[in-house]
Amino acid sequence: MSIKDTIAAIRKEAGITQEEMARRLYVTRQAVSRWETGETMPGIDMVKLICVTFGVPLERFFDMPMSYYCQCCSMPIPDEEMHGTEADGSKSADFCKYCYDQGDFTAKGMTMDEFIEATAPMEAKALGVSLDEAVSLMATLLPHLKRWREVDENEQQFGDELRAVYGDEVMDKANEKYVAMGEAAHLQADELELAIKEQLRRAVESGDTEGPEARKLVAMHRHWLCMYWPDDMYTPEAHKALADGYITDERFHAYYEEVAPGATQFLHDVIHACA
Q1: How far is CA 213 from CA 156, 237, 272, in A?
Q2: Domains of the chain by residue range
Q3: What CA–CA distance (Å, rounded) separates 182 from 188?
Q4: At CA 266, angle to CA 262 and CA 272, rounded to 5?
Q5: Which of 60, 97, 164, 241 has the fewest CB atoms below 10 angstroms from its CB?
Q6: pTM of the entire structure?
Q7: Rounded Cα–Cα distance for residues 97 and 90 (Å)
């Protein structure tokens, strides 16, 4: 659906006139009319305002679903030749060749804001918009893309408390490490997370917080943490401090209690005994 048709559809879904839409967006009725006829197009910031005002996702303004775009930089990747490659040489389903090559991201050690600053000039040139518009568009799109989405969600859910404990520098490094992970590394981490839950179940059944099942659990958990934490962050004391948080934070407590009743406390005790 074209942008002009999308705007008209959003207005009609809201059951309002062009005059009312104009009032809510602080523009003239004529501006709305020109958008709907295709005579002119709203700028990037106005599109964002339309989405916020009428509660619609930004992707409605794109002719293709978000999966059509590189899940790192948001560039369209309609042709297979535009796709990056995995470590085995196969084509990546999610990332363009400029962002992803041989199973790894080409731009590492960057926060999302730094990535936008570095790549916005190319985006502006490709789209034929101003640099400010490109920055605005990327700042809106990137938090919804695969590479950046989980970092943004984690920041919203845990960011304030984690930064209060570990500091901004440590958290920024952790985020940079996360977004630099390739697909293979993410898959390995996800598989290890599932294996940890299974190992936790076995250790709980053993009832021994210092036995072989417990020691194996702590080793697996330590390895999993080191996949995400900055390289110089892990210490047994930091591991134990995290375990203390598992007890006091209802979100972590609920996650581990899915394994078995009392699993959270058991994991805490095992880490304190074996880390």
Answers
A1: 35, 21, 15
A2: 3-61, 66-147, 183-274
A3: 10
A4: 155
A5: 164
A6: 0.59
A7: 12
CA dihedral 91, 93, 96, 99 (to 10 degrees): -90
Question: What CA–CA distance (Å, rounded) separates 270 from 275?
Answer: 8
Element (H, E) at 68: none
Q: What digits encode the pLDDT tens for the residues 23-70?
A: 999 999 999 999 999 999 888 788 889 998 999 887 788 765 666 788
Contact of 42 with 54, CB cutoff 8 Å: no
CB neighbour list of residue 56: distance below 8 Å, 6 or more residues apart: 10, 50
Instruction: Return the CATH number of the domain spanning residue range 3-61.
Output: 1.10.260.40
> Matching CATH topology for 3-61 and 183-274?
no
Residue 55 gets which letter from DSSP?
T
The answer to whether 266 touches 200, Cβ cutoff 8 Å, is yes
Please say whether the beta carbons of 69 and 11 come within 8 A: no
Q: Which of 67, 94, 97 is nearest to 82 (CA)?
A: 97
| b/e burial code for range 97-123 (CB count within 10 A of at least 16 → b) | bbbbbebbbebeebebeebbeebbeeb
Element (DSSP H or E) covering residue 184? helix 183-206
CA–CA distance from 107 to each of 40, 116, 169, 227 (Å)?
36, 11, 19, 18
> What is the residue type of 193?
E
Residues listed for the chain:
275
CATH number of 183-274: 1.10.490.50
Place of tokens 């401090």: 241
Residue 33 corresponds to which amino acid? S
**Percentage of the residues of the chain whose pLDDT score is greater than 70:** 98
